[in-house]
Amino acid sequence: MLSKTLLAFLAISAQHVLSHAIISPRAGGPIDYSDPSGKSWGGLCATGQHQSPIDLAKGMDGVLDVERNAITLKWEDVNSASIENHGPAIYVKGPKGSLSIKKKSGDALTWALDSFHFHTPSEHSFDGKKSEMEVHFVHQTGSGKDVSRAVMGVLIDAASGSQKPNQVLDMALEKALLVKKMHQTEKTGALKMAELAATIQAQASLTYEGSLTTHPCDENVRFFISKTKLYVKPETLKNAKEVMKYNARDPTTWTPKPYSFEF
Ligand SMILES: [Zn+2]
């Protein structure tokens, strides 16, 4: 007879398999979320020393608190943007802007907003707790080998009670069901990017030196995770999940502790 513990274990394992459905490889590299550790994706995903995402436990070495006024998001409103299915993730392109950090020396480091995209569920977690979704605003400077990236990540849940859904996220994903197939694109309505930037900056962020969370898992990525939580309409979350399925890498545990970058 099976013990209660074993039965519970089997139930959890079955759930684990179901929630990590295989997704077709994405252009530019193999991303198979049936291995959410990413180790089998090859390259730096398997051998990197500073891989994202991570679990943001309190007081973790290498993870710094960034004061609200040390970081500036300048994002510009747009009348329309385009969404594209890039394989596992929905990307939003069009909005322009920048992310700057003020260094102790007084100098500023600035990256230009390139695009943003979504993961369901969230990739980063706080003390082991994930959210329903995570958005990554990818900023970069330079190109080729000299590329430097700064990603602002924000955790997202479905709004309930008095929680207000965010206009940009709902609008960006409004037509998600129309881009179910790879490379399909659609136009969005107006995105109030400046208001979203202000909302995210209303609270401090955590930061660490990490990597892209998808193949090729390039390192030299300055990750910022805002302490602001964002919300979407429950229907938006449902549609996003229907299109992207499970497209979140697990927090990495096999790499050394993250190291913080100098301000
Ligand atoms: Zn991402």
From TrEMBL:
| Domain Alpha-carbonic anhydrase span(s) in chain numbering | 29-263
Q: Please indicate if the UniProt record lists Protein transport as a keyword.
A: no
Catalytic reaction list: hydrogencarbonate + H(+) = CO2 + H2O
- PROSITE patterns, per the entry: ALPHA_CA_2
Give one GO molecular function term: zinc ion binding
Q: Which UniProt keywords apply?
A: Lyase, Metal-binding, Signal, Zinc
Q: Which CDD domains match?
A: alpha_CA_prokaryotic_like
Q: What is its EC number?
A: 4.2.1.1
Give the range the annotation lists for the signal sequence: 1-19
UniProt KW Lyase keyword: yes
- Residues in coiled coil: none
What family does this belong to? Belongs to the alpha-carbonic anhydrase family.
Entry's PANTHER family? CARBONIC ANHYDRASE
The protein depicted here goes by the name carbonic anhydrase
